[in-house]
């Protein structure tokens, strides 16, 4: 079974807070509250990266894949219209630790180019 939802966020200082609240509410509604803590860390970092490094308004996506054998998997994604790929910075000095935190918190993560331009950065949690 799959479920998905999306939220367009404004380019405002409270965008990450709105994204966290939305993620918490969706995880509760979908009955996967145990996935919320890691998802919230990822959501915060990806939304803040979009606001910090692009001129785009972030679009948050949540997709739940229920698998009775492997367990529930939640994919968090943030799409923006900036074509530059998201990469972990080598320096390791703040700022620049956001994607490293995403990589450490998630099962896997990646960055996909969008056909219409821009990119989607995503991460999965179980």
Automatic annotation (TrEMBL):
Domain Histidine kinase/HSP90-like ATPase, first and last residues per copy: 10-123
Lineage of origin: Bacteria, Bacillati, Actinomycetota, Actinomycetes, Pseudonocardiales
Q: What is this protein called?
A: Histidine kinase/HSP90-like ATPase domain-containing protein
Q: Which InterPro entries match?
A: Anti-sigma-factor_SerPK, HATPase_C_sf, HATPase_dom
Keyword annotations of the record: Kinase, Serine/threonine-protein kinase, Transferase
Q: Pfam families recorded for this chain?
A: HATPase_c_2 (PF13581)
Task: Tell me the domain of life.
Answer: Bacteria
